[in-house]
Each structure stands twice: as C-alpha cells, then as structure tokens.
Amino acid sequence: MTGPDPAAPGDAAAPDGTAPDEHPAKESSAEETEEHDQPQDAWAARRDLVDHSPRTMKVGTHAAFGGGYVAGDQHGVSGGRVTGDVVMGSKTVHHWTFPGLSTAASASGEIPPTTLTRLAATFVTADDAFGDLVERLRRERVLVLSGARFTGRRTAALMLLHRLGAAPVVALDRATTPGSLAEAFTARDDTPDGTTDRTGAARGYVLCDLETRRGSALRETHLLGAADRLAEQNAYAVITVGPTAVLEDDVFPFVWRPPATEDVLAAHLRVRAGEDAVPRLLGLPAVKEFLDHGHQPREVAAFAQLLGRYAEGGATEQEVASFSLVSLENQVREWFEEDETTVHLRDKAFLIALAAFDDGPYALTAELGDRLYDFLQQTQNRSLAADIPVFGTHIGKRLQLARARLSEGEEHTEWGPVTQTKAAFHDERASLVLLREVWTGHPSARPALIQWLRRLAEDGRPLVRTRAASTVAVLARTDLPSAMALVIEPWARSNRFRHRLVAVNSLTLAHHIGTPNVPRILDTWSAAEDRRLRWVAVRAYALIGPERPAQALAALRAAARELYRHAGDPDEFDVETAGELAEAVVLLLLSPASSEVLDDLRTHLDDDRAVHDLAVGGFIGACGRTQDDERHGVPLVLDWYARAATDENRAADGIAHLWREALGDPHHTTSALAAMRAWVLAADRSTAVEWALAALLPRLVTTPTEYQRLSHLLHTMPGEDGNPPPEVAARLLGTLPPR
Fold it and tell me: Residue 209, by phi and psi: left (phi above 0), alpha (psi -120 to 50) or beta?
C-alpha cells in the first residue's frame, strides 16, 4: 500500500484551507487497508448510482443501466431540460416582488379601504365553507385562522371582516400577546363619559401571526375576554396563527387551506385583462407549466400582473416563460436571507439536506440535516454547540417552510425494495436552485458544506454516498474549478475506494447535467502518473461512455497499452486499473451503445495484445451478467444475440466472432468455458435460453479444434451443485456441426 496521500481528505493540508480537526478523523490504517482491498464491483456501483440518483438527474432507466440490456438511444438524462434550465440559468435578470403578502409589519395601522376593495375583486375560496365562516365570526366576534405562511390566510382574514362590512379594519401589532389580547381592542370613538359610540359601522381588527409559546398559550379565556370587549365596541377580530402555534385544547381554530392555483390566477386575470382574455391566457404553455409547479398565492398574484401586461403588449413571451423559475429563485433567496428569528439556522440546514436528498427518506434527511447544522454552527460561532432538540420537531412545520410533501414510496436496497416515508419538494427544480444559491450566494457556508459532503462520502449507505455525489455534481455545474479543487479531486486522490467512487459518480452526474470539460478531465487523468486518478478515469469512462463510445474506447485502449508496458514488472504493473479496464468494457457492452461498442471492439481486436486482451476479457465478463443480476436470470449477451439473430442484425455476427476468439485464446479459454458452462446451466432452466444457445453454438464451430472444445464441454460438464450432467447438454451437443 502506498504512503499517506497529502491531498486526501482529513490530512494536514486540506485544499480548502481548513484545519485538520475540521475534517472527519482519518480511518485507521487497518480499516483503510480493508477498504483498499475491497473495491465495490463496477456493475453493482452503477446499479447504486441509477437507484439512488435524484429525480432531476437520472442517468438512465434501471433496465438500461444494470437491470438488463435495452436497445435504443437512452443516453440522455431524464429531466435534463429542467436541470439545464435551472443550473445554466444562474444569471437572473428579472426580480419580482409580491405586494401585500410578505411578512406582516410589526406596527399597528389601518388597512386602506382601496386595499380591501382590490383584494375582494380577486378573492376566491376552496369550497363553500367561507359563508359559514362569516356567520361564525358574526356570532362569536373573534375567530382564529390557522395555516402556513403564504397560503393566503391574511387575505382570508381581511375578507371575512370585509364581508361583514367592518370599517375601518385595523391591523394590530404582532407583539400583542395572548394575555393582552382584550386590551388591544380599543374603541374608535369614545364619548366624553367613557361609553362607546355604537351608531357607526362595525369595526374590524386583524392580528396576523399571533406569537405564542409554552407558558404563553392562547386560551379560551383570552378569546372570551376579547369577544366581550369587541361586543362592547360593535367590532370583530380575526387572528391568524401558524400550524405550530401553542393553543389550549379549548381553542378551536379554523384550518385555512388555499384555493386551487388556477382558480386564483383566473380571478386575478379577470380583473387585470378582462373576462374574454382569461381562456387564452390560461391556455398558454408557460401558464400551464407555472400552474404545474404549485406556486403560492402571492406568486400567482404577481404572475397575473405580468400576464396582464403581456396581454396589453407590455411584457415579452420570454418574461412570461421565465417567471416560474424566477419566483422559485426569489423564494430560495428569501429563505437564506431571513434572520434566524424567521428561519432558524437548523431549518436552513434542513433545507440544504432536503435539496441533497430530495424525494429520499425523511428520517435520513432530518438526521443528516442536523449533522450539517452542527457544521454550520461551528462556522457561525465555534463557542456555541449546536442545540438540537431530541424531541419536539414538528415535521409539518418543516415541510411547510420547505414547500415540500411527505409520501410513501419504495427505496432500493441491496436486499430489495423497502417502503419508506419520503420527503420531496413540490417543485422538483427547487433542489438545484437551492444548492446553486448556497454555493455561489453564501460562500461563507462552503467550509461547513465541504465538511458535510466529506462526511457523507464516508457513510456506509449507498444512498447517502450517491446523494453526496449528485450534490457535488450541481456544485460543479455551477462552479467547476472550486468543486474540483475543494471536493472532487481530494476524493479522486484518496487511497480509499469509497472516496474515489464518489468522485466517479460526481463527475458522471456533472457530465450528464451539462457540466463542460468532464471528458477532458478524464482524458488527462487516464494518462496521469497517479494510479488513483487513472482508476477514477476508467470507471467514469464506463459510465459516460455510452454518449461517446468511440472516444471512451480509444481512451481505454490507450490506458491498456500503457499498462502492458509494465506487464513484466510487478512493482509497476497497476493491477487495480487492469481490472477496471475490463469492467469498463463490460459496462459499455451492456449499455444502450452496445452495438457501436461491439463494432469497435471487433474492429480493433487484432491491433495488439493489450487491446485484444481488453476486448476479450471485457466480453467474457459481459457474458457472465444476467437479467436483474438474478443468479438464474437470462444471460444478457445471449438474449442480445437471440434478438439480433432474429432481426438479422450484424451484432449476431460480432457476438459469435468474439466468442470464437475467447474460446480459442489460451489466455482466456478457461474463463470463456466457465461462462459457457453457466449458459448451459441456464438453458437447463429455461426453454427460451436453450433455443437461443442452440442457435448460437453452430456459429461457434468453424474448425475441428472448436468442435472438439465445445463437444468436450458438453460431454463432461457436471450439473449444478454436483448433480448429474444436465439433460440439455446432450440436446445442445446435437446442434454442433460435425467437423
């Protein structure tokens, strides 16, 4: 084993300039040796990458990348357009404000009647319960509305008072406490003797975001006292609270839910553009896309303003198309610009963790979010330990802040799929926008984020390591030099295979979301003196190779020739990279670019010994892979041959040719016969496999030697687990043409 790597994570000179104790402690030499000796199989590693990569950057279908061969062009990234638009659109020109729906001001004041009239013109409700709610307010004088921020609860409170004819409507100071609630309702016109003049219209009060906490809960006695005071004044009041407000059991708030986004937009458009323009505007593709992303009422109102200008010729189609993404960027920016009294540092850490683990298990996201919070707290104030409550975290509050949802779904594990409770942003673009904002907009968070990512790369769970890679891929798309220097290259130079594999996945996913220059990086690393960089390059070639098979195979051939220059020197020969080269050919042969790869291997088969061994060794390895990696599954290459032969595709000739080369090469005959023996056993279990093998075997016999080799195999091979020879062997023997 080589000596300590000065660039490996945790060593004295970390590339980000942080001190050694800021990084996870380095593993003991025994543990590192164990890891060094047990690299994850490339086939299994690709399956983990496919299973656990986020929904915005899937490398391909499960079948195409590990579950079985799929013909056709599937090289791209599902969701690639979204990923590209979000990550590439890092320079935003338009910044929209959302009037009337930001955080309530702290001072009291009268709501202008024109504001109430404007809100009434566009106000819609989710159901018919609003009328009943008005009557309840009329009877009880005071009403509590519960709901998340930016759901329109303040507008609903104002409209309840407006429907009752209350005038004026006064907004109360948010500093009002439950205990001082009754005193907050002061008379508008007191007579000289102290009684209230009740000849005018009823007065209205709105108190947004009443502050409650343990020891200062809102109780029924507070509401009864307020109701008495309001009745004396001929007044009404509506109080809004968040979903986690501290309320006594005898307080029964009405849970406010926003109406459908399309209904809100249509109501605003009727006012802005007229009834006749509404169907046309709602039918615009950009409007339909906007509605699909579940925007808040404040964003809908601002979008309606823009559409009104668009209908009049005052806004461009591009402004309309970009509004949805711009409003998402504004929301993300708002989260991280808020002080800790509004969005706590722990909540910001959770938002970052959710961006990394979007649509992953909630418990895992929360666990690793708290770990990130610890790192962020060290950056912000080393003298304070992160205060993480063990119990009491409100899942609903976290998800409402993040504009996210919970759902039940299957998560892939090495033991098979399991059902998990997952958390995901409503808008799938949020994770990409958020990570970009944190990395480029808040550089002070970088040291903590780097520490966190390095800790994730150490994790024993494949999902965690894959999401570390996908997160770094987004950072690389945003700022490639920094991501390479601070994260990817230290992983690539690590002595631990686990770190190097995360580097491989980071580069692979970065390439798939459009990061430039990744192939150039791999070309450089494949010829590097550092064996660890060569290992990373070869693994990555296997994953991005289906997009550029000719270039990938040319690089693999060059690496193989370089290895053979040291074949006679055990101290110089890189056994690790030699094995990876063969595995890379396996992955490429079973990728969607299989036909091009097969043609290329056959074309260069006789170039030299190094290239010949690379092609034949990789082909034999591919012959050992089965559908879904099942022990008794259908051999993927044999299934490929059967379909190619049926379609009279030239791939059938290529497969037969490589089989003859493998069986006839003294360096590979033993492993080739073992692969053929496995196919015969598979044929004993499946008629379809038997028919495919019966069609192939005659094409493998062109000389007496080839006949004798296969005939001897079928005559002498034992059954599985020491059983008698399989009956199918005798039947297959009859398909061999006599020589």
Answer: left
CATH architecture of 125-255: 3-Layer(aba) Sandwich (3.40)
Task: Provide the token pair at 277.
Answer: 């323009």
- Residue 74 pLDDT exceeds 60: no
Gap between the Cα atoms of 636 and 289, Å rounded: 40
Tokens of 338: 């808020």
Asked if 366 contacts 393 with a C-beta cutoff of 8 angstroms, the reply is yes
Q: Are strands 404-411 and 418-425 parallel, antiparallel or unpaired?
A: antiparallel
Helix 42-52 and helix 462-478: axis angle, to 10°? 70
Question: How do residues 538-551 score in pLDDT, each as one tens digit?
Answer: 899 889 988 889 98
Element (H, E) at 198: none
Reduced to 3 states (helix: H, G, I; strand: E, B; else coil), residue 319 is helix
Would you tell me how many other CB atoms lie within 10 Å of the CB of residue 96?
17
Domain extent listing, the chain: 125-255, 261-336
Band of pLDDT at residue 718, cut at 50, 70 and 90: confident
Give one DSSP letter per residue of 447-503, joined into a string: HHHHHHHHHHHH-S-HHHHHHHHHHHHHHHHH-HHHHIIIIIHHHHT-SSHHHHHHH
Name the burial class of residue 670, with classes exposed (0-12), middle (13-18) and buried (19+) by CB atoms within 10 angstroms of its CB. exposed
Among 173-182, 526-535, 596-605, which range has the highest average pLDDT?
596-605
* Strand 404-411 with 142-146, pairing: unpaired
Q: What is the mean pLDDT of residues 256-273?
A: 87
Mean pLDDT over 233-261 rounds to: 87
CA distance 115 to 535: 66
Q: How far is CA 274 from CA 47, 294, 312, in A?
A: 54, 24, 11
- Collapse the DSSP code of 247 into the 3-class scheme (helix H, G, I; strand E, B; otherwise coil) and give the result: strand
And the tokens for 497? 């295979």
User: Could you tell me the two tokens for 516?
Assistant: 């430039």
* pLDDT score, position 585: 93
CA distance 376 to 646: 60
Prediction pTM value = 0.77
Q: What is the pLDDT of residues 364-406, one digit of tens each?
A: 999 999 999 999 999 887 777 667 666 656 787 788 888 888 8
The residues with which 238 forms a beta bridge, in sequence order, are 143, 206
For residues 48 and 462, the answer to whether their CB atoms sit within 8 Å is yes
